[in-house]
Design brief:
mainly alpha; 3-stranded antiparallel beta sheet; two-stranded antiparallel sheet; HID1 domain containing; Hid-1/Ecm30
Length: about 750
């Protein structure tokens, strides 16, 4: 019995699959924990068996799966031990390309007991395993409350019960909230960890942007083959959105009672986002027609994707369901911001990155949900935590992924007019943040935080500058009244971005100036009356515009500007921006502790690939702008040529030296300088004397919105980011540590 938990290591001869006495010892009913299994079965031993006694490893996996599938709920210990053993061994099967197909093969002789004819329709092991997990997740007295007096012992009963009556938590499509049960939560968690491990084969394949990226484990589990797909999707979603970590409002309550729900919620969130890893760019998503039916899932839409989890998510449509989901996610995202006068008195959750991915998926796959979010100022309950995370993580190299997803969500929201309108709500919540104190709206908060990220974040955030300013441009036509603090921040950015060394030091830096000028144009054209602060700031800083209009284009001047940069490689000058005192109770954004682990990310597509330009018509509807209609638009209005067309042209005009180093040329500078469209100063002075813009401004230009568009590049980015988060967050037990993952690299800060 002492050897029970060691692998069938290096038995010189293969052990027959029929030798039950030998194999049964591996899942004997001795109580162990998953941590024990990880300690007793070291990595080196699994790899040795894989290399030296492959048939024993094959038989072990086969026996565990079969014992498991037949064991049913009746032998809980056996089920849990099999589950732990598989969680331990699977990553080592995935890391070896020769073994990867093993679970998808049918094992010869699997039907031995009943003769050979059963082999014809034998399922692959992977399918048997996934169906067994699904059954066990709705197993009375093991993972759910039993509804009848007698216990279910026969496997047949488990297969016939209607799991929709056993959904884990009230919420979408289910009104009954079962009694919390610690044992059930722990058992569910162990099974979900195994499920996540099955799905993690994706970690062992290198990132390939062209791969449709269908994970066969997820594909099968979320197909009609899994009769529990709907109740399980609902259980996971409701468990996450119903969770309230505050501890019933009693300070320090979380220290007195261990919260066994949180690990389950975290695991549920991780399984949910992995099942929803679906490239929406390549699939048809259901249309939005605003109809409602009596069920939780909308049946009127055309059939959606084959992945049922994505399908169900895209068809949720009832207002009360949207309200439940939005309130739940907002509550959990705001949790780390809860400040009380007693330090550490409230429980802080750690899974905000998984929640942000889930929120992204909801908005991306369910347009009705997106419109619901923007219909009221509830969207601000999502915005403020995101701005808090962005500001807090700006100096930390290990949290670059968090910065990106926060910005992507805001980019997605900013493509909708309502988001800009909602930002005008006064900002009164005082979450302690390391930013200057200001009095104003949520728009002011957004601009002040963006300014802080750009001027005091680390270098690796520079690819996000385009995105940040695109968001500002998207919301600018709707901003009724910027505070003096925010107006000064915008002009400080213009000042920093329009220095000659910055403009000439990279091929696309001038886009940032164009974005800012476009935002100023929008505000002056559409919201002039309330924006005296911005107009005043522009007039005060008119020398910046003057310098831009007189930008040197001759080669010696370009050369001189770049020399100046070599002497002072300060990323962006902080001079000229009067930093007021930071908010009371805030801590400065800290860099990562040395040695912090982080996972690498694939590059994100440029802003021209991330977004698609649309023009807002008189009635508020959007029409997509094809390059043909863009030409006419840029004549006679301050709207500028878009970075994407200009980009190819500039690549042609600027010279790339032999070393591949890009260098600016006079033609290149002239090609975009001519499009700046700056008016001369006399007109501004005339306006100041008369106090009116009538006759000065051209006819208002159409509003241009750059809407986020799904593409395979972002789908790949999300996949690497999501699995990187899951890899780093699962440390007890360390499911994937020290295995040969290929999707990302593990780095130390």
């Amino acid at each position: 019995e002492g050897e029970a938990d060691s692998l069938p290591n290096r038995e010189p001869d293969p052990v027959e699959a029929t030798d039950d006495a030998f194999w049964d010892q591996f899942w004997a009913d001795t109580a162990t924990s998953v941590q024990d299994v990880f300690a007793l079965v070291p990595a080196a031993e699994i790899r040795a068996v894989r290399e030296e006694s492959p048939s024993n490893l094959a038989t072990l996996c086969y026996k565990v799966t079969v014992v498991w599938a037949l064991g049913g709920c009746s032998r809980e210990r056996l089920v849990l031990n099999c589950s732990r053993l598989l969680t331990r061994v699977l990553p080592y099967i995935f890391e070896d390309p020769d073994w990867r197909g093993f679970f998808w093969s049918t094992v010869p002789g699997a039907g031995r007991a009943g003769g050979e004819e059963e082999d014809e329709n034998a399922r692959p092991l992977a399918e048997s395993l996934l169906l067994a997990i699904a059954d066990l997740l709705f197993c009375p007295d093991f993972t759910v409350q039993s509804h009848r007096r007698s216990t279910v012992d026969s496997a047949e009963d488990v297969h016939s019960l209607d799991s929709c009556e056993y959904i884990w938590e009230a919420g979408v499509g289910f009104a009954h909230s079962p009694q919390p049960n610690y044992i059930h939560d722990v058992n569910r968690m162990e099974l979900l960890k195994l499920l996540l491990t099955c799905f993690s084969e994706a970690m062992y394949l290198p990132p390939a942007p062209d791969s449709g990226g269908t994970n066969p484990w997820v594909q099968f589990f979320c197909s009609t083959e899994n009769r529990h797909a709907l109740p399980l999707f609902t259980s996971l979603l409701n468990t996450v959105c119903a969770y309230d970590p505050v501890g019933y409002g009693i300070p320090y309550n979380h220290l007195l009672f261990s919260d066994y729900r949180e690990p389950l919620v975290e695991e549920a969130a991780q399984v949910l986002i992995v099942t929803l890893d679906h490239d929406s760019a390549t699939s048809t998503s259901p249309t939005v027609d605003g109809t409602t039916t009596g069920t939780a899932m909308d049946d009127t839409d055309p059939p959606g994707p084959e992945n049922l989890f994505v399908n169900y998510l895209s068809r949720i449509h009832r207002e009360e369901d949207f309200q439940f989901i939005l309130k739940g996610i907002a509550r959990l995202l705001s949790n780390p911001l809860l400040q009380t006068y007693l330090p550490n008195s409230t429980k802080k959750i750690q899974f905000h990155q998984e929640l942000l991915v889930l929120f992204w998926k909801l908005c991306d796959f369910n347009k009705k949900f997106l419109f619901f979010v923007l219909k009221s100022s509830d969207v601000l309950d999502i915005l403020v935590p995101i701005l808090y995370f962005l500001n807090d993580a700006r100096a930390d190299h290990s949290r670059v992924g968090l910065m990106h997803i926060g910005v992507f969500i805001l980019l997605l929201l900013s493509g909708e007019r309502n988001f800009g309108v909602r930002l005008n709500k006064p900002y009164s919540v005082r979450v302690p943040m390391d930013i200057p104190v200001f009095t104003g709206t949520h728009a002011d908060l957004l601009i002040v935080v963006f300014h802080k990220i750009i001027t005091s974040g680390h270098q690796r955030l520079q690819p996000l500058f385009d995105c940040l300013l695109t968001i500002v441009v998207n919301v600018s036509p709707y901003l009724k009244s910027l505070s003096m603090v925010a107006a000064n921040k915008l002009l400080h950015l213009l000042e920093a971005f329009s220095t000659t060394w910055f403009l000439f030091s990279a091929a696309q830096n001038h886009h940032l100036v164009f974005f800012l000028l476009e935002a100023f144009n929008n505000i002056i054209q559409y919201q002039f009356d309330g924006n005296s602060n911005l107009v005043y700031a522009i007039i005060r800083k008119r020398s910046v515009f003057h310098q831009l209009a007189n930008l040197p284009t001759d080669p010696p001047a370009i050369h001189k500007a770049l020399q100046r940069r070599r002497r002072a490689p300060e990323p962006l000058s902080r001079t000229g921006s009067q930093e007021g005192a930071s908010m009371e109770g805030s801590r400065p954004a800290a860099p990562a502790e040395p040695g912090t682990l982080k996972t690498s990310l694939v590059a994100t597509p440029g802003i021209d690939k991330l977004t698609e330009k649309s023009q807002v018509s008189e009635d508020g509807t959007l029409r997509s702008l094809e390059p043909t209609s863009q030409q006419s638009l840029s004549d006679g209005s301050p709207a500028m040529e878009e970075p994407d067309q200009a980009w190819r042209e500039q690549r042609r005009l600027s010279s790339a030296s032999a070393s591949g180093q890009w260098s600016p040329t006079s033609e290149w500078v002239l090609s975009w300088k001519s499009k700046l469209g700056l008016t001369d100063e006399s007109e501004i002075l005339r306006f100041l004397q008369h106090g009116t813009l009538v006759g000065l401004l051209p006819v208002p230009h159409p509003i241009l919105i750059r809407k986020y568009q799904a593409n395979s590049g972002t789908a790949m980015w999300f996949r690497t980011y999501m699995w990187g988060v899951i890899y780093l967050r699962n440390v007890d037990p360390p499911v994937w540590y020290d295995t040969d993952v290929k999707l990302f690299e593990i780095q130390r800060v």
